[in-house]
Structures are given as structure tokens and as C-alpha cells.
Amino acid sequence: MSIPPERIYGLGTGPKVEVLKQLQSKPEHSGLTLHFVEDRLATLKNVIKEPHLDKWNLYLGTWGYNTPSEREEANTISRINLVDLHDFCAKLNSIVPTLLLFTYKERCEPPKLEEKNRSI
């Protein structure tokens, strides 16, 4: 699967809550299902605090910068879905052509092995 680079947002794009607001306000995104994958629970909580962002489907990537206790807490918040890397990669095809934010696409591809070292 190929996602155009202009459809992937990450570090350096700006404060995430503001980027989400900007993206959902674009006319070309009207009617799309919006997905935000994040590895920090605090960021997802900030999104939830913004009523204007209620249309976003929120996911906490369990492979990222979060702890088991944060994942347990996220599991109690109805707006947040936990997603592991395997499921995230499997679901990429099901959410295209919707708007995908802050993806971890590079981690879904199998690692390249060098000829000299065949182990990972």
C-alpha cells in the first residue's frame, strides 16, 4: 500500500490538536472518517478535551511511548481504542482512503537484512 507523503503528518507539523482542527476543517476532508493514531496518552486526552474534535477516531499505539498503566487507563476511556502494531498494520488497508494521521508506516514493513548479518 502506498500513502502519499502529503497525507502523513508527524513531528514538525505543529501542535497535534491544532493540526487535527486544521485538517478536519478542510473542505476535501468533509464526510471522511478521521483517524488519529498516537503513542502518548496525554496527547489523546488533550484531543478529547476539545469538543470540536469529537469526530476523530482515537487510537493509542501500544508499541509506542506509553506504559502498561497508561494502556490500562486508556482502556477505560471510551473514545480511545488500543491498537497493537500487528493489528494497526493489518487495518491500514481498511481505513484507506480515509485521512490517516501520524502513522507508523515504516514500522509495518519487514526489516531489511544485510547480507553480512541475517539476524535482527
Instruction: Work out the radius of gyration.
Output: 15 Å
Number of helices: 5
Q: Percent of residues in beta strands?
A: 15-25%
DSSP strand count: 4
Shape: globular
- What's the rounded overall pLDDT mean? 79
Distance between the termini: 24 Å
How are the strands of the largest sheet arranged?
Answer: 3-2-1-4
Class inferred from helices and paired strands: alpha/beta
Largest sheet: 4 strands, parallel
Helix residue percentage = 25-40%
Q: Which stretches are poorly predicted, pLDDT < 50 over at least 5 residues?
A: 102-106, 110-120
* Multimeric state: single chain
Instruction: Give the topology string: H per helix, E per strand.
Output: HEHEHEHEH
Can you offer a commentary on this structure?
Strands 3-2-1-4 form a 4-stranded parallel sheet. It is 33% helix and 15% strand. It is an alpha/beta fold and 120 residues long. It has 5 helices and 4 strands; from the N terminus they run αβαβαβαβα. The chain starts with 15 loop residues before the first helix and ends in a 12-residue tail after the last helix.
